[in-house]
């Protein structure tokens, strides 16, 4: 299954859905990644300021990965409006 996430909120929603589908609580995911439950909550909410290292730990535990592809719609200047 391939999902597209272009914003922190979309990435957070994808992480939340995957975690729940795997039957894991935020606290359990935090324990497996060495992160606080509050950090997991912030990542899932798409709040700015989450460290890339933390996001990568979460993705690894959930068996997800980041893939970089050219944008399928819009131009490269559109990204500025996302943030």
Topology:
Blueprint (H helix, E strand, L loop, with lengths): L7 H14 L4 H8 L3 H9 L6 H10 L22
Helix pairs in contact: 1-3, 2-3, 2-4
How does this model look, in words?
With 83 residues, the protein is an all-alpha fold. It has one domain (1-64): Orthogonal Bundle (434 Repressor (Amino-terminal Domain)), CATH 1.10.260.40. The protein has four helices and no strands. It has helices spanning 8-21, 26-33, 37-45, 52-61. Helix 1 packs across helix 3. The longest helix has 14 residues, at 8-21. The protein is globular and about 35 Å long. The model has no long low-confidence stretch (mean pLDDT 89).
Keywords:
83 residues; mainly alpha; 49% helix; globular
Query: In CATH terms, what is the architecture?
Result: Orthogonal Bundle
| Number of beta strands | 0
The biggest beta sheet reads:
none
| Poorly predicted tracts of residues | none
Encode the helix/strand succession as letters.
HHHH
Structural class: mainly alpha
Q: Give Rg in angstroms.
A: 13 Å
CATH class, named Mainly Alpha
């Amino acid at each position: 299954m391939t999902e597209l996430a272009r914003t922190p909120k979309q990435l957070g929603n994808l992480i939340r859905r995957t975690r729940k589908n795997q039957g894991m609580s935020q606290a359990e995911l935090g324990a497996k990644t060495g992160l606080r439950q509050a950090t997991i909550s912030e990542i899932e909410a798409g709040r700015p300021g989450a460290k890339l290292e933390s996001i990568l730990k979460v993705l690894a535990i959930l068996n997800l990965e980041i893939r970089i592809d050219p944008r399928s719609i819009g131009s490269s200047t559109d990204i500025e409006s996302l943030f």
